[in-house]
Amino acid sequence: MDLVGGKWKAVILYHLKDGMKRYNELRKEIPSVTEMTLSLQLKQLEKDGLISRKVYGKKPPIKVVYSLTNLGNSFVPVLEAITEWGNKVVTEKGEFISAEG
């Protein structure tokens, strides 16, 4: 759980499961995360070997893309199972369950 725990890591991995994304693409797809949090989580996921960061170009504007590593890809079935479970709960309950109760 150290590798994928917390509020945002699994969300970021979910958004990278279908292919590489640039930072701004992730920001648009996850609008409720702050820039600082997204940046920190991306660095942590890279440090832990779940994503890779590839820089294209030597001078600005450089292009940076993030993608899943083999370790990150091995987590995709877990992400899909969690997504399926969440969708089932929403369907059965008719609403999202809030963290407050």
UniProtKB/TrEMBL annotation:
Keyword Transcription appears in the UniProt entry: yes
Superkingdom of origin organism: Bacteria
HTH hxlR-type domain segment(s): 1-94
Keyword Cell membrane attached: no
A Pfam family this chain is assigned to: HxlR
Record key words, sorted: DNA-binding, Transcription, Transcription regulation
Gene3D superfamilies: Winged helix-like DNA-binding domain superfamily/Winged helix DNA-binding domain
Protein name as it appears in the record: Helix-turn-helix transcriptional regulator
Organism taxonomic ancestry: Bacteria, Pseudomonadati, Bacteroidota, Flavobacteriia, Flavobacteriales
